[in-house]
């Protein structure tokens, strides 16, 4: 018999919630297991992304076997800024059975109706980054990059069968280092920096500079976001938490900053992609994961965030930052960059990436449901 439980937000309570994907994907060659310690912190840690509103974790059982899960919540900061009553669902997983999926989605809808929600967007996590927006919709034929969503194709049938409709696509682009037009970008970067008075430098992530860096990045992103953006402007604590999380599991040797004088006018965040290593060590850094990390040769990187101050739009700041990341990646032996995820409405970024030689190779889709 199928039944759904609301799980307590404790390390013991969330254990079956976290264990379900490991069973579902145990034979999947392209699924990358998340880092185990990061999973728990992400779900119930002090700085978890769900903390800005009511949320609940639902797990469906068929008799005693866990078969489907979902997290449902409300981001009160977004609703206050947009003057909406929206909710979200995230971390959806299910065996290939519509009744299992329906059970947890019913529980999520019931919970969100109690919170006064009128529209659900998802899968979506609150916050300012696009690490995990949507379901993988196109591009099931290769290992997913670090922190990106991954799921079987049948999840889309579950969502549309339930009544969800497309909300928005987020695209991933692949840029092979050998195909990047470095000389053209060097000329463009030199011309733009001389004409518009900015410079691009590696991000200073030394411990004694991290708080100042976080403050400048948070302020710049808040100004760069349009008023109707779905993205929540980050706080200083948000930036610090993301930085420290990245430093735990990957090298932060690729982020770059654009400055005009002393003012930050652009930021691009990229990191070495340890997805193949994470697959090999099954998400465990202990006892041998750290040793493997030291000797593992990374051949790819992911650029996950690019923001430019509004008064420096159309001044080739993006191009100059991409060039600087390219130079640093080349020194590290990186052979390819994934740039993700780019909102389908951001045509300017898409055109810029295609001009750089990148090709669209994955799509992540978000859905919406009026309730």
Topology:
Blueprint lengths: L1 E5 L8 H10 L11 H9 L10 E8 L2 E9 L2 H7 L3 E9 L3 H17 L4 E4 L12 E4 L15 H9 L2 E12 L5 H15 L2 E4 L7 H15 L11 H14 L6 E5 L2 E10 L2 H6 L8 H7 L4 E9 L8 H15 L4 E8 L3 H9 L3 E12 L1
Parallel strand pairs: 4-5, 11-12
Antiparallel strand pairs: 1-2, 2-3, 3-4, 5-13, 6-13, 7-12, 7-13, 8-9, 9-10, 10-11
Question: How would you explain this protein's 3D organization?
Answer:
This protein is α+β, with helices and mostly antiparallel strands. Strands 1, 2, 3, 4, 5, 6, 7, 8, 9, 10, 11, 12 and 13 form a 13-stranded mixed beta sheet that branches. A hairpin with a 2-residue loop joins strand 2 and strand 3. Helix 7 crosses helix 8. The longest helix is centred in the N-terminal third of the chain and has 17 residues. The radius of gyration is 21 Å and the shape is globular. About 3% of the residues have low confidence.
> Strand share of the residues?
25-35%
Total strands: the figure is 13
Largest sheet: 13 strands, mixed
Shape: globular
- The tally of helices reads 12
Look at the structure and give the mean pLDDT. Answer: 90
**What level of helicity do the residues show?**
25-40%
Question: How far do the termini sit from each other?
Answer: 27 Å
Radius of gyration: 21 Å
Strand-and-helix sequence, N→C? Answer: EHHEEHEHEEHEHEHHEEHHEHEHE
Low-confidence stretches: 286-295
Helix and strand composition category: alpha+beta
């Amino acid at each position: 018999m199928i039944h759904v439980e609301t799980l307590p937000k404790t390390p013991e309570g969330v254990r079956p919630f976290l264990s379900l994907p490991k069973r579902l994907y145990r034979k999947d060659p392209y699924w990358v297991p998340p880092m185990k310690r990061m999973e728990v912190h992400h779900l119930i840690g002090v700085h978890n992304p769900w903390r800005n509103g009511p949320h609940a974790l639902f797990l469906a059982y068929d008799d005693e076997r866990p078969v489907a899960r979902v997290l449902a919540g409300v981001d009160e900061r977004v609703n206050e800024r947009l003057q909406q009553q929206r909710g979200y669902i995230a971390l959806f997983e299910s065996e290939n059975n519509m009744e299992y999926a329906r059970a947890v989605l019913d529980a999520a809808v019931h919970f969100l109706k109690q919170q006064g929600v009128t529209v659900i967007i998802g899968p979506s996590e609150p916050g300012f980054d696009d690490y995990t927006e949507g379901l993988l919709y196109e591009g099931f034929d290769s290992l997913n990059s670090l922190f990106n969503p991954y799921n079987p194709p049948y999840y889309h049938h579950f969502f549309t069968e339930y009544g969800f409709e497309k909300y928005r696509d987020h695209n991933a682009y692949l840029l092979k280092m050998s195909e990047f037009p470095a000389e053209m970008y060097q000329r463009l970067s030199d011309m733009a920096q001389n004409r518009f008075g900015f410079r691009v430098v590696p991000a200073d992530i030394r411990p004694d500079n991290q708080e100042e860096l976080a403050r400048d990045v948070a302020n710049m992103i808040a100004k760069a976001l349009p008023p109707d953006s779905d993205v929540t402007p980050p706080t200083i604590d948000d930036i610090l938490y993301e930085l420290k999380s990245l430093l735990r599991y990957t090298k932060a040797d690729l982020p770059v900053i654009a400055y005009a004088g002393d003012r930050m006018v652009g930021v691009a965040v990229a990191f070495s992609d340890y997805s193949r290593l994470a697959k090999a060590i099954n998400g465990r850094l202990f006892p041998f994961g750290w040793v493997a990390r030291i000797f593992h040769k990374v051949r790819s990187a992911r650029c996950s965030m690019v923001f430019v101050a509004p008064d420096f739009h159309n001044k080739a700041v993006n191009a100059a930052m991409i060039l600087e990341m390219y130079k640093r990646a080349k020194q590290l032996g990186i052979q390819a960059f994934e740039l993700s995820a780019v909102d389908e409405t951001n045509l300017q970024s898409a055109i810029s990436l295609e001009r750089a030689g990148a090709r669209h190779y994955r799509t992540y889709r978000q859905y919406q449901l009026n309730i």
